[in-house]
Amino acid sequence: MTVHDDRPLLLMVRTGKREFREYLLRSLAPAYRVHLFTGVAPTWELDYVAGATELGGLLDVKAMAEAALRLPDGPVAGVFTWDEARTPQTAELAVALGLPGDPAVTARCRDKLLTRRALAAAQVAQPASVPVGSLAQAFAEAARIGYPVILKPSDLALSVGVIKVAGPEELAAAYEFTSAVRHGALPDWRPQVLLEEYVDGEEISVDAAVHHGEVTPLCLARKEIGHPPYCIEIGHYVHGDDPLLHDPQLRRLLQDAHEALGFRDGVTHTEIKLSSRGPRIIEVNGRLGGDMIPYLGLRATGVDVALAAAAVACGHPPVVAPDRKLVAAVRFFYPAQPDTVVETLDFDRAGLPPAVDELALLAEPGERRSPPPAGTVNGRVAYATAVAATPRECERALDAAGAALRINGLPPADHG
To answer: Engineering a disulfide at 293: which of 35, 38, 151, 289 sits with its beta carbon 3.0 to 4.6 angstroms away?
Structure first.
């Protein structure tokens, strides 16, 4: 006898690396029948999905829509992705299936220049920003805005090509650095360089679910930035009782930014600087946060960002019910020397404090890894998470995990 499964059918467009995304699928599987659209044969995902369709590396929207309509266990209740590069196709697929999604809004989030223009039109607080097409123009705009300034590509992620420029003597090399960034999958791609006002203060991120235009914060993370002047995110802390989650000025800024972008349904990852002149929007991404941030939110607050994201993808309001007030944190580790060939990689787990939560290895034997800037995208060799009652306990646990990491038998600082 066939047992009817009344869980909603959710289409997932790609997944990502297991070490960074498995916890999300683990949350979704009990509540949804997840069908995966992927460019390669699924592996670890098979423990969590109800089915999978291989459609080749390009994941054409028309092919995905046709495949979705052929699924025998439909209809599809929602479509979503947490892959930054696949957000445009996912939005188009949702529209093709009559589900929540807006390709124009996704484009405004994906391209930082379009984001800046939309926020400026609505007078939402953000840094001054201008596209520059030459070094001469960069010098002129930097002099107008005032140093320090930030250079960044308009449509990449993971802080690739982002650099802080302290003064005019550094600008030429910095402009060459950002202009030289290339996209591995698009050989003809060249960056549109943005020159922006440097905003002082702590940087945070807010993952939020948006339903019919109402923005519900799910998880607020405080960033650790390293490897200056390259603005690399090396860690995050999530406080279960962070007062910023209830700050009316910050909540108003989030709502205003989403309204300016026209973002009415879906999930976002918004980066904000808490400047001396008030909070400023740095960017708004139309996806969940990476770097294990939703996992930290789950461990620190009990709020399941994956389930909230699935709910709004299916046209339902998110259910947000915090049930704890802990602190959770993550730190990422790099080799000390460029072009390090990883022969052995592991943590010495003996004697680690109980606050150490997860230890993950991100490199295989024989692979090369470099610290930033060369290793901004794939230079990380490992990460550790910690959960405790206080930030200081998490910090000590992550320090201990870093000291316990061995690359080719040696600590990261000594292995070269």
So the answer is: 289
- Residues 296-353: pLDDT tens digits? 999 999 999 999 999 999 999 999 999 999 999 999 999 989 999 999 999 999 999 9
With CA atoms as reference, report the closest residue to 45 among 70, 17, 69, 65: 17
Q: Say if residue 8 is preceded by a cis peptide, omega within 30 of 0.
A: no
Higher pLDDT, 217 or 378: 217
* Pairing outcome for strands 266-275 and 327-333: unpaired
CA distances from 179 to 113, 153, 173 (A): 16, 8, 10
Whole-angstrom CA distances from 325 to 126, 224, 244, 303 are 31, 21, 14, 11
> Could you tell me the pLDDT band of residue 184, with boundaries at 50, 70 and 90?
low
Q: Compute the distance between CA of residue 343 and CA of residue 360 in angstroms, rounded to an integer.
A: 16
Positive or negative, the Cα torsion across 44, 45, 51, 53? negative
pLDDT at 222 over 60: yes
Does the pLDDT at position 212 exceed 90?
A: yes
| Tokens standing for residue 37 | 């659209």
Candidates 146, 157, 70, 76; CA nearest to 110 is 157
Is pLDDT of 200 > 80? yes
Six token digits for residue 398: 């992550």
Q: How many CB atoms lie within 10 A of CB 213?
A: 12
Can you give the three-state secondary structure of the chain, one letter per residue? CCCCCCCCEEEEECCCCHHHHHHHHHHHCCCCEEEEEECCCCCHHHHCCCEEEECCCCCCHHHHHHHHHHCCCCCEEEEECCCHHHHHHHHHHHHHCCCCCCHHHHHHHHCHHHHHHHHHHCCCCCCCEEEECCHHHHHHHHHHHCCCEEEEECCCCCCCCCEEECCHHHHHHHHHHHHCCCECCECCCCCCEEEEECCCCEEEEEEEEEECCEEEEEEEEEEEEECCCCCEEEEEEEECCCHHHHCHHHHHHHHHHHHHHCCCCEEEEEEEEEECCEEEEEEEECCCCCCCHHHHHHHHHCCCHHHHHHHHHCCCCCCCCCCCCCEEEEEEECCCCCCEECCCEEECCCCCCCCEEEEEECCCCCCEECCCCCCCCCCCCEEEEEEECCHHHHHHHHHHHHHHEEECCECCCCCC
For residue 114, give the nearest of 102, 105, 122, 123 by alpha carbon. 105
